[in-house]
Amino acid sequence: MKLYVFNPDADMALGNNEENYMAPATIRRMAEDLALLPIWYARPGSGVLAPSAYNADYLKQMQQLFRLDVHLVTEPELPDYADVRVMPWGWNPAIRKRMLKGGVLERNLPTPDALDKYRMKAARSNALAFRALFYSNKIDYTCGDGCCLVEADGGTTAISLDIIGRYKEGCVFKSLWSGSGKGLCWCRHGFTKNVSDWCSRALKENGGFVMEPIFDKVEDFAMEFYSDGRGKLLLSAIPVLLRMTRGLIVVISLLQMGKWRNGFSNMCPLKHLCAYAI
Q: For the chain, first and last CA: distance in Å?
């Protein structure tokens, strides 16, 4: 059986990378309020980890209305589901410790080494690989030129001002791991001491950060990728609407991506990517 867990602090916990990480009170409250969110995507016959006091009645109503084949599992009941397969919103050392302490068998949880590899794949720097694929395949209606990864040079934790000079209209620095709008440093008025200190701290703590120009952004959107089990990445069948700054509506349907290989430069090109201006 699968046990789904909504842990919205997943990205923030990855940035901290400590098993004793505790999310801010607002994020913990969000996790409690939206604990039943996985009922809408959980596999039939699965459980969803949530407090029962104020969730049981709501789940019962949703089961009657939508015939949902899921059931509620509370934290004290975890030992009864020791052999369950945990499906969190995102893995990190903190959620692993929580499940292990709750009674889930260690063999059913990712190893610390696997979590380290997962963390590297979840780093913001990996998004640069997708940008490279878009540009190498000359995909229309995409932006992102000028984004780069700044890495610490050995023991150096200072950033060259030559890099800053590329972005006359301002730039934004992004931590390799962050969530909920955290981990961003906006550089709109020159390379001030606060900006310099942020960069030095990011280089020292994470070994690098992503640097982007400040785009004329109108709206955020997200695409959900999943694996087909044979080494290919697929996008959810639901098309994504992206409103562009030129007033166009673009529907991007990414049906299939090339197989991941070692390193950004060895990734297979995108296939079957269509963009339509409506």
A: 44
> How do beta strands 2-5 and 46-49 pair?
parallel
> Pairing mode, if any, of strands 171-175 and 148-151?
unpaired
The torsion angle over the Cα atoms of residues 160, 164, 166 and 167, rounded to 10 degrees, is: 170
- Best CA proximity match to 208, nearest among 259, 247, 158, 164: 158
Q: From residue 74, how far is each of 23, 49, 51, 277 by CA, in Å?
A: 20, 6, 5, 48
The CA angle 269-270-274, to the nearest 5 degrees, is: 150
Alpha helices in the chain (DSSP H): 10-16, 25-33, 56-66, 93-102, 112-121, 127-136, 161-164, 193-206
pLDDT digits (tens, 9 = 90+) for 107-122: 999 999 999 999 988 8
Structure tokens at 28: 């913990």
List, for residues 54-110, the tens digit of each pLDDT value: 899 999 999 999 999 999 999 999 999 999 999 999 999 999 999 999 999 999 999
Strands 85-88 and 2-5: parallel
State if pTM tops 0.85.
no
